[in-house]
Amino acid sequence: MDTLSRDQKEEMAITFAVLLLQQEQIKITPDKLKKVLDAADVSVEPYWFKLFTNYAEENDISALLSGAPTVVSGPVGQQETQQETEVKEDEKPEVQDDEPPKKSSSAFSSDGGGIGLGLFD
User: Fold this and answer.
1) Among candidates 121, 85, 80, 77, which has minimal Cα distance to 103?
2) What confidence tens digit (pLDDT) does each residue in 64-117 have?
3) pTM for the structure as a whole
């Protein structure tokens, strides 16, 4: 613990408080987090309480702990779960070893198309 910065120690303390409240199935609020840390005689900067409360309100902590699928961030409208991503990767066609890779028609190829620099062949 001596190698951790003050912020890291505070983050770890508030994380343990969140986990404790979650385990006891108590709604996570700034006041309850403060009570847990006060009981442990740990002080943290006040912003941690609201930060972790907001996170707990927006995310299912029990699902996070159980390893349930999480949302993979991406451009708006293109979010999908991690399981869906894995399924899509499994659906990709396999390239056979004796088949040469297909050349892409990049604007930067040297096959006569594009500017012909051949930098990205």
Assistant:
1) 121
2) 777 756 565 556 555 555 556 565 666 656 656 666 555 554 444 445 454 554
3) 0.53
Residue 33 pLDDT exceeds 90: yes
Count of domains for the chain: 1
Q: From CA 62, how far away is CA 85, in angstroms rounded?
A: 22
Residue type, 46: P
Report the CATH number that the domain containing residue 53 is assigned in CATH: 1.10.10.1410
Best CA proximity match to 83, nearest among 91, 29, 117: 91
Vertex 65 angle, CA 73 and 72, to 5°: 10
In a domain, 18, yes or no: yes
The end-to-end CA distance of the chain, in Å, is 50
| Residue 12 burial class via C-beta count within 10 angstroms: exposed 0-12, middle 13-18, buried 19 and up | middle
- Contact of 44 with 37, CB cutoff 8 Å: yes
